[in-house]
Amino acid sequence: MALDRWIALILLSICLAYGYTAWFTMDAGLAPFMKRNPIWPSTFPKVLSILAVIACLVVLSGIEKSEPKEADIDYRRLHEYKLGQAIMLLGLMVAYALCLRPVGFIFSTTLFLFLGSFILGERKWILMITVALIATMVVWYLVQQVLGIYMRPLPGILGG
Amino acid sequence: MLEGLLIGLQTAMSFQNLAMVIAGCLIGTFIGMLPGLGPMSIIAIMIPVAISMGDPSAALILLAGVYYGAIFGGSTSSILLNAPGVAGTVASSFDGYPMAKKGKAGKALTIAAISSFAGGTIGAILLMIFAPMLSSVALLFHSAEYFALMVVGLSAIAAFAGTGQVAKAIIMTLFGLILATVGEGTLFSLPRFTGGIMDLQSGLGFITLAMAMFALPEALFLVLKPKETGSSGGEIKDLRITRSEARAIAPVIGRQSIQGFFIGVLPGAGATIASFLGYAVERNLATKEEQAEFGKGSIKGLAAPETANNAACTGSFVPLLTLGIPGSGTTAILLGALIALNVSPGPRLMIDEPQIFWAVIMSMFIGNLVLLVLNLPLIPYIAKVLSIPRNFLIPFILFFTLMGAYIGQNNATELLILVGFGICATALKFADYPLPPLLIGFILGGMLEDNFARSMQLYDGIAFIWERPMTLGLLAISLILLVLPSYRARRARYHADGVASGD
Predict the structure, then answer these.
(1) A99 and A56 share a domain?
(2) What pTM does this model have?
């Protein structure tokens, strides 16, 4: 089975879970006065779940033929691409998300930009540090001073 | 009208207001270029500045300039990075990005600049003529019609986004709608599908989803498969467009400015629908060989959404200025700013304070001119983004993706959601599922449900569907839109198999 039909299967299961919530569990907490309303908070999701299940089944059963296109990246040979780099960058993004508040904007962003280019294979250390620092400072200045959005610049323990 | 124009010219031509237009356009262009910061967030950020000026016409002129600039800048990042920061420029990336990939980034940016200018200017002329008249047309629309109109919009997007894969596009649209139901619904403000997670209470952020659907998979693809970009893609030499190209896009610009303007007038429809519909219409109108070009770098496919979204931005001012009803999120923010300045937009605006109404219209002309004069010479510098080495560019794209999501919500959980959805989107992209319908479904989901709920309440059930002929007609159109492509594909297949067609 091709990947698109596997994905249709996964989406179908999501739709079924969504539909189950909409049809059977959501209305339990509804106050009596709400039940007199012609539309409930679950009405729209109920309609959506039915339509989505039908659409998923259409793709899953392969009723609609589609000519195979040459994709930009062939997922069957994914390991031949730089998968490691991609996964490491994703990990870095998660780490950044977790660090942004506790460690502060300036430190985590500099580190993110530095490590990002490191993962991609850059080894000009001075340039990497300079670019990361300047970019961090400029963005921080724009966001904090010009736009006035608060970003904790330094780690919490330093009173940032 | 002539008197009004003169009043407007007098107000808009003052030194302060001219400076406001230029400043607004510049700020809008630069910030709009950053993927993730859409016009809504920029205008929201600019509101304190505008209000502190104290002059309503200057404030509105500044904010309108920012709005245009943001749409304009958004198309630049769509073309160069395939990372649309604004929903209205998603359609521009369909053909703009392939052009940039082929090394024709300069030409793509020129076409975008010219189409935006033409769309904005023609839109402003139409606004001047139709603003008083159109208010009555928009008033005829009932929430049932809005609901049906959005269904038509969504089915058109689903029908045209997939290349012979309507079912996949429909799934994606429905998933967009499903994602839009996460969080507190308008009905009784009950939290839905949050799974008890507090961060989901306010729903998923549009910018987060947009980043996850477009910027992140694109960046990951760049990582997975290094392309021979760099020097060849970075040189923007071919800024001029040829006479034959100009002739090819002229009718597109003409049609799309008018169509985009009228779509922009309808509340709820707006730059996004206008650009997608414009793209779809032009694709259907094009000849067979031109149709094959669409999605691979067609100049018509770029000119159409660019013209339509700028015309629609202008059109969205009509309900704001004449009725006091904001048609889009952006104009809603503008409405808030005007009320803070003690101006109440509405039918009496033109009588009580004509200088505001006309100054805004005049500043639209000036703003469009500024954008054309400003952006065209700056294009080679803007396009320098492409010549940044990959090792530095990719971390920066990822960083701006994260920042855009973070600034919008100021919530670090949003970043985790972004990465999660980004991975899902990449998998969907591998399997050739079209992603734009998901985002559009998500954007329209809230409005669609609101209008559905409103008509259900007014008619105490779903009777509005058959009791209002206009609603029924629009829903029938959307059904035809969905069925027709697969019917045509089936017939074409039979035809290829040697089965004679009936007619």
Answers:
(1) no
(2) 0.69
